Each structure stands twice: as C-alpha cells, then as structure tokens.
Amino acid sequence: MLRLVLLQTQLVTPGEIASNIGRWLFLAALVGLLSGSASAVFLLSLDFATELRDSHLWLIAFLPLAGFAIGYVYHHYGAKSSQGNNLLLEALYHGKDPIPLRMTPLVLFGTIFTHLFGGSAGREGTAVQMGGSLADQLTKWFSLHKADRRIVIICGVSGGFASVFGTPLAGAVFSLEWMLVRKLRWRSIPPAFFAAFVADWICEFGWGVGHTHYFIPEIPSHSQANLAWVIPAGIAFGFSARLFAETAHVVSAVFKKTFAYPPLRPLVGGVLIALLVYLSGTTTYIGLGVPRIVEAFETPLPWYDWLAKTGLTGLTLGSGFKGGEVTPLFFTGATLGNALSAWIPLPLALLAGMGFVGVFSGATNTPMACTVMGMELFGYEAGVFLGIACLVAYFFSGKGSIYASQNLEAKYLWRL
Questions:
Q1: What is the CATH number of the domain that holds 253?
Q2: Which one of 97, 257, 291, 367 counts the least CB within 10 Å of its CB?
Q3: Are 216 and 347 a contacting pair, CB within 8 Å?
Q4: What is its main location (predicted)?
C-alpha cells in the first residue's frame, strides 16, 4: 500500500506543479486587482461623502428618505445581496448559489448613502462584500470547481479587507480565520496572501489612496504586573464586543417583527438616528468616527463614548442601513480603552490600541488576525500586549458574533 501511494505521488510532474502555481498566482493577482480597485473607488467616494456631510449638516435631516431608498432598492432588486457578509460565509460553507454581481454596486451606493446622510457605520463590510462578489465571478469565467471557488472567495475577502485598511498580512489572516474556523487548508494560504498584497498595492500606489496612521508612543516593560493588567482590560473588551454584536441583532429582530415591509425599517431607523443627533447636539458618533479614534490615542475622552457608538451603530445597521461594523468596533474599543486608563495603570495610547483590536477580536472571533493587524498598525513592539488582549477578549465574548452565519464550533468551551 505504501508503495502504491508513493507511485501515485510521483504522477504529479514538476511541470504540472509549476502550471498550478502559475494559475493560482494569476487568479489571486486578478482578484487583488479587482478588489483593490473597488476599495479605492469606495474609499475615495466615502471621503467625498463624509466631507460633503460635514460641511452641510442639514443633509442628516434626509437620512429617513435615504433609508427608505436603500431599503426599497434592496427589497425589490437586491435578491440575496441583503444578506451581506453572511452570504459570503454561506457560499463558503455550503457552496450553493453564486454570489450575485449586483452585490458590488448595491453595497457601494448603499454605504455611501448611509454615510452621506449621517448613519453610523463602517467600511470593512462593504469592501469585503465587493471583493467577495467580484471574486466569485471568476467561478463562471474560469469554470472553477467547488474547492477552487472557496479559495477565490477567500482571496476576495482577503483583498477587500487588506486594501480598505492598508493591512495586507491581517487581511489574509482574517479571511482564513474568519471563513474557515478550524478548517484551515494549506492550499488557501498562498493565494490569500498574494491577493492581499496585490490589492493593498493597487489601492495605495496604483490609485494613491492613503490610510489613517495611529501611534503608541510608550510601550511598558513586559513585567508580570503590566501583563496581568491586560487581563481585566481584555475581559472588558470581550463583554463590549458581545454587547456590540447583540445590540445590532436585537435591533434587527425588533424592526423585522414590527415592520413587515422592509423599506420601512431604515426609514424609521433614520428618523430615530436624526432625532438622536439633533437632541444630543453632536455629530461625533455618526459616520466612521475616525477623528475620535485618533483622539482616543492622545487625550482622555468622555467615558460613555463607546456606549454611544455601540448604540448608534446597532440602530443604524440593525434597522437596515448598509456599511461595515469594523471601524465602529475600532471606535468602541479605542474609546473603551481610553476610559479604562482611569483605573488601569497602563499608558493611555496602549490601552486604546488594545481596545481597538480587542473588541474587534471578540466581535468577529478572529484573535490571530486582530493581533497581526494591531502589529501592522501600531508596531510590533506592542505585540505581546495586543495578543493577550485579543485572546482574552475572544474568549470572554462568548458565542456571540456580528456575523450570524459564522461557524463558532471552535468556541464550544464557552457557552455564554
């Protein structure tokens, strides 16, 4: 039997191996080109929409109408696109129907409208959905079978994530960790990384789109006392991640039960959000909130910032507006870490950075990707603190996730 296996393995010639490698380099590069270009167009459009809204705040009054328009288009023309990131997960797990190409323009314009008129949302979901839907078109163009289709979808997610944040290593690890929980296959790894680097390069150097930079000026020693303080911070980040995920799910369930006609959900949600912004007298918690995230690394902020962003984002996405969850998670985590600096004797910027990736880790169940992302964004010197925070937050977030279709069998140890 051993001889037979050895003989069979010799049937694969070096030429066939080289051909297969060349094929996947080509496909991964093509996916990277498509997803990186889509992210660049999206980021440029998002910057324009944000600047326009900030200079014309009266646009927020039209958020209910924008919500109805988004809901109407998705309900009547979106087909399965309304499932968002969950559709990508189902395509990977079950490999059934193709991801519709219409997902790309729908989520692009839906997210731009959400931000233009004052919703609280992110950008990761949009980039990932565009990358995944564009990548899946290669299944038809090149007649890929089921296993290869999974790999190109992973490449699309990797390219979209990497290019929208400027973190190619984290983008690749995220796509593998998020989509293939405990089912990592080595054949997916090289294409995922290659697609991520191509997409990031195309977005940043091909299109000239930059990314926000963060800085942690002080990294304390790796003493037992300092590392021990990371644990209560990580627990807080894990509970915050669970609250963030459950808020959106609960709001979505309430709106679906209350309003049978889907376009009415974002319309009513838009009314509530616009009223909250008007009554609070601040626009700090709408849009991406990147300026506030940067502030969280520099100066003490109101302790309730993280709660306000959690609630407003849950209301925005739960009622049917479009956009991602990750940048609001960054906001929630960074401001929570900022607030914890009043009780935990670690540098403020380090706590903000730990929260930045820790809450993200707990809400997406991707501690490895979040640790890598933290090191790409903040420097490798903070890696030990970031890694512990992400791991603790991952465990203490329980069986929650911002993605309803995510496979969480790997978390059987925690039944919260």
A1: 1.10.3080.10
A2: 257
A3: yes
A4: membrane
233 found inside a domain: yes
DSSP 84-131: THHHHHHHHHH--SPPPTTHHHHHHHHHHHHHHTT---BSHHHHHHHH
- The yes-or-no verdict on residue 61 having pLDDT over 70 is yes
Average pLDDT over residues 325-342: 97
pTM: 0.91
- Statement: residue 32 has pLDDT above 80: yes
Residue at a domain's end among 172, 206, 240: 206
Number of domains in the chain: 2
Q: Give the chain's largest Cα–Cα span.
A: 77
Question: Are 196 and 233 within one domain?
Answer: no
Are 278 and 118 in contact by the 8 Å Cβ rule? The answer is no
Helix locations, 168-223, DSSP H: 168-179, 189-201
200 and 231 part of one domain:
no
Give yes or no: residues 188 and 298 share one domain.
no
